[in-house]
Amino acid sequence: MKVVVLVYSDDRNVRSDVSDACGTTLAGADLEIREAATQAAVLTELDKGDIDCCIFDGEATPSGGMGLCKQIHDEYAFCPPVLLLVAREADSWLAAWSLAEAVQPFPIDPLTLPKQVEELVFVDEEEAA
C-alpha cells in the first residue's frame, strides 16, 4: 500500500521540514510526499484524485493554507483530510472555519505530525470496519 500526502507551502523550508518529519513510511505503508508551492499546483494535484491527505501552511502567501483548505472542501466532492500548520494557537478558530480536520502549530513537531497524518489517513478504514 502507498499513502500520498500533498504538502503546500510557498516556503521550501516548511515543505522540507514536513517531509523530513513524516519520513518514508506511515503505519507500515510506503509514504509519497508531493510538494506544491502554489494554489494552482495544489488544485492540479487534487484533480489527479490520488491524494490521501493534505498538509497546508496557514502562513503561505499569496494563497494562505486556510483559505485554500476552505476552497477545496467547498469545491471537491471527495476532499482529502487537511492538516493545517498554524503560527499561533489563536489561529485555531480560523482552522475550524476552513473545515480543516486537524491543526498543528509551528514549529513542526516530528513526533506528533506523523501520528496526526496517520490518524487522518486511516480514520476512514477504521470507521468502515
List the quaternary state of the chains. Answer: single chain
Order of strands across the biggest sheet? 2-3-1-4-5-6
- Report the C-alpha radius of gyration, rounded: 13 Å
Let me know the number of strands. Answer: 6
Structural class: alpha/beta
Instruction: Name the helicity range.
Output: 40-55%
CATH class: Alpha Beta
Query: What does the largest sheet look like?
Result: 6 strands, mixed
Gap from first CA to last CA? 18 Å
Average pLDDT, rounded to a whole number, is: 92
Please report which band the strand proportion falls in: under 5%, 5-15%, 15-25%, 25-35%, 35-45% or over 45%: 15-25%
Shape: globular
How many DSSP helices? 5
Low-confidence stretches: none
Topology pattern, helix = H, strand = E: EHEEHEHEHEH
Query: What number of structural domains do the residues give?
Result: 1
Walkthrough of the structure:
The chain is of the alpha/beta class. The chain has one domain: Rossmann fold, CATH 3.40.50. The chain is 42% helix and 24% strand. The chain has a 6-stranded mixed beta sheet, sandwiched between helices. β4, α3 and β5 form a beta-alpha-beta unit. The longest helix is centred in the C-terminal third of the chain and has 17 residues. The radius of gyration is 13 Å and the shape is globular. The two termini are 18 Å apart. The mean pLDDT is 92.
